[in-house]
Amino acid sequence: MSVHAIHHVTAVTARISENLEFYTKGLGLRLVKRSVNQDDVSAYHLFYADAVGSPGTDMTFFDWPNIGPNSPGAGSIASTAFRIPTASLDWWETRLGDLDTAPQRIEDDFGRESIQFSDPEGQRLELVEDEGLPAPTTPWEASVPAEHALRGILGVDLESARPDMTKRVLTELLGYHPLTGSDEAFGVADQETTGRVRVFDSPSRRVARLGAGGVHHVAFRVKDDDVLRAMQEKIEKVGLKTSGYVDRYYFHSLYFREPGGILFELATDGPGFASDEDMASLGERLALPPFLEPRRAEIESGLKPLS
């Protein structure tokens, strides 16, 4: 992996049990990590991915039951696009209709069909046929047949307060290039993965307010710590503030807010979700990184059971 495709997208839910049901039984993703927000241990942090938790397949959620609904606007991530196998659109259109997600079949700037829909809290999602693009993922077949299973995250749509500056971050810092035929779409690709980010000027000119059904941040892949530290130097050299190196145990991270108002993360591919659990039992119990393990009893007492 030599390009900064999507590593994961982290969103917000106020209805964690319904969220778990929709993303696992509805969309067919596997709960690969049942943990807590490391900065707010009163909140679950659930990770949904393919069968083995491959980088680039994760949709993660913070559980904040008292937060209000998401208010879209400038400085937000408006939609997340998942890849699906070729010839799966009809199957998914029927399934999403049965799930009452209001699916809409559309055609993009490149003549490629996709399905846009919303999760139960209004978060905008999209399914795009990947047309033979590389997809080193392992389908989770518990509720969706392997031939139709989601194959990871293709990309995100950004509503930027300063779209020209957001595009510069993508191209000059993250190595994205404009896709022919569109003023908004940018991409990266190598033999292992591919990514797409579309950047739009927010139509409302109103600053977004994060809430349930909204996205907290998008994370881009980096190979390892060496690349992560090199990217920190590169980002700070152009005058953007970063969080500095953050050890999330399952991966290592760096956060920065790009000039258009959107929180970006860079995240390493490893160590991975099997660092503290057997692959066969991922997500079955509350997993805590070592620095939180001494507080397990306190943390577990503050979490409601997941139905």
Overall description:
The protein is α+β, with helices and mostly antiparallel strands and 307 residues long. The chain has a single domain, classed as Roll (2,3-Dihydroxybiphenyl 1,2-Dioxygenase, domain 1). Helix content is 17%, strand content 35%. Strand 14 and strand 15 form a beta hairpin.
Question: What gap, in angstroms, lies between the N and C termini?
Answer: 37 Å
| Number of discrete helical segments | 5
Q: Write down the Rg.
A: 18 Å
Reported for the largest beta sheet, the result is: 8 strands, mixed
The tally of structural domains comes to: 1
* CATH fold label: 2,3-Dihydroxybiphenyl 1,2-Dioxygenase, domain 1
**Helix percent band:** 10-25%
The best one-word shape is globular
State the strand order across the main sheet: 2-3-4-1-13-16-15-14
Low-confidence stretches: none
By CATH reckoning, the class would read Alpha Beta
Order of helices and strands: EHEEEEHEEEEHEEEEHEEEH
According to DSSP, the number of beta strands is 16
CATH architecture assignment name:
Roll
What structural category characterises the helix and strand content? alpha+beta
